[in-house]
Please model this.
Amino acid sequence: MTKVDTSLFRNYDIRGEFGVDLTVEAGYIIARAYAKYAQPKKVVVGYDCRSSSPILKDEIIRGLVESGVDVMDIGMVSTDVLYFATWYYKFDGGLMITASHMPKEFNGVKFLRLNTEGMLTPIGKGVGMEELEAIAQSGNYINSDKNGVVEQKDVWVDFVNFSKSFVDVDVIKPLKVVMDAGNGMGGVVADKVFADMDLDITKLFFEPDGNFPNHQANPFEEKNRVDWVAKTKEIKPDLGVAWDADCDRVYFLDENGDFINCDYIVALLAINFLEKNPGTGVVYDLRASWVVKDWLNKLGGKGYIERVGHTYIKKRMQETKAIFGGEVSGHFYFIKNAYMENGFVPALMIMEMISKTGKTLSQLIKDLGDYYISGESNYKVQSTMKTMEKIKEKYFDAKEISYQDGMSFEFDDWHFNVRPSANDPVLRLNLEAKSKELMEEKLEEIKNIILE
Model:
């Protein structure tokens, strides 16, 4: 019996180098294991623009069909389209073939399944991934007397109409926008979502190309924003928008070409929802700036802090019935979208805010108040545990210490979170202070502890 590489089973999904640890046979086995674990009758399958995705998709569909599962193949789409199609058409589960923002050599699978409450939920560590791996390694699959049926469906019209339902499209002015798709799925989706809107769009790398020839489709990293920022500074648009490869994350530049930390976008969108739905709940990750907490308190919203990762954020949103969720990493979740991400709704909402208020995006951000955020920095270390212990000893006198995800320390005038990477000997640091000088001082102080 073929064994599947254990490294494929990650915190939030399946990921590996295609043809090395993630083989076509592994894809087939994982599909069989998913069918056994999730017990679906009908599922949606989609794939991104990576060159290995069509091959992997075929093997995954074969594994599902041989397990007696009916499949709706929606073709080459973004992850948020797959999520939408799964709940909108009332399917039992979904499988998206993608490695998100990882390099071209990689691929993977993101899953949805129905939980015991009949709600769609992702599979990740602590929420089904261990069970999925155990079945994959055991070879104990469903032996079906009848193969499932495969059908194709075009879901684009429904997805576009749903995405636009979050805003009044008619009030959005003819804005100038620089959009960077990084040769991922963003260009395919953006061409459909914004097709009939009166926008002046400058398109960067809209052609889907799984080799990602211009830059990695991961705007969270500054090195991948160079072309986007340069074009924005050149033509002075109203805003810039960029997506990661599979569009479950979205990022913004203001009219000056300055990158906007996603904490601020979480706050802006939360304010929008709270003004229309007073007292509602918002889930956000523990790295977030005080700007989110402060505005939730100011507007009487309920704030729920959760550990990093879409599997945890979605679970908490389902438990609290929160209307909206957001992460520093650019994920935005909506109760109206079955608690899942949509990378185009935030762009539409920001365009609507600019149009309604008559303010620039930088003015909208300035109106939120003065916050000094470091952004996420990553440090390679020999031992994450030993380094974290040194940090704990240094800051034992913090006003609050939390171990919800790594370690979070809060003082009166600054706070930070440090957490280990799930896959590499890397520590990720996020820090905020009430002055720029203090932020820079503490960032350097902790950096020295990490690297000493």
Observations:
- The CA atoms of residues 281 and 302 lie 4 Å apart.
